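Changelog note: in this version the structure field was regenerated for every chain. One regenerated record is shown below for reference.
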Amino acid sequence: MNDPNAIAVIIPAYNASATISRAVISALREPEVAEVIVVDDESVDDTIAEAKSVDDGTGRLKIVKLIINKGPSGARNRAIIESTAPWISILDSDDFLMPGRFKPLLELADKADFIADDMWQVMENKTGDLRKSLFGDLIKEPRTISFAQFVRSNVTRNNRYRCELGFIKPIMRRRFLETHQLRYRETMRLGEDYELYARALACGARLMLTPNRGYVSVMRSNSLSGEHSSDDLLQLRNCDESLSGMAGLTDNDRRALREHYLSTDCRLQWRLLIEAVKRRHFSSALETFQRPHPIPLFLLSKLAQECFVRIGRFFGFKHA
């Protein structure tokens, strides 16, 4: 492909018949888009038919059907293989792009390998309502993001507005991905974006973040990222150990990874504690408290919150 600024938009889709046409239309509308690759991840609804129904006849739309469900990472990797454009952009099947998103991102092409914008967020069934920004006023002009900054933004902390950089959807330079043999880790169904971006940064990728340019993230109550299992959390936690072994990281980078590891382990151990109690397997429940600081304190605080809520319900109080 001769145009150095051509973009392949890849859309992994699973049972997305209600939203896939909107996503495809928004991608085909952009003049910089040379390819739109929809990978159907063994859907059982009309996802493929809906995607085909909005083909604009330019020959840019390609639909690939997987016969075995591979999850979001596997579907994305297949789409990367099927595409050829110099830049790759991820679009989730329930999200969409506003007109003119890519032009201002490509204006930074000589400064970065991964270029992302702040994301507009809307609730499902209210996509025409006033949008809110993922990062609020934190991003007022294009800025470079370091490895440690990226990792620490994904550390869960109480009383902090959720603004993880792991949610961003950058355009990615294909040449960088190929040079460093980077693909999504297919064992991960939670945090696969975080792992890929962190690994790219560890390999020397330049990541720039700009104010909102037009990616609209539709917030759903049944989002896959909110339906994770203990194994999903285990894979996310353990990827930090793999990342920490990469050459070239500073002590500060590895401290950031340790913070993210412990943050994820807090969530994992809480999930394991609940599962152990439900099974009445009290030795397994006690094992969750034998993890390093701050995990025991986190578990105690979560138990205290649960007790407070249950007591309130007993006496008829309502909690937010």
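Spot check on this record: The radius of gyration is 21 Å. The chain is about 40% helix and 20% strand.
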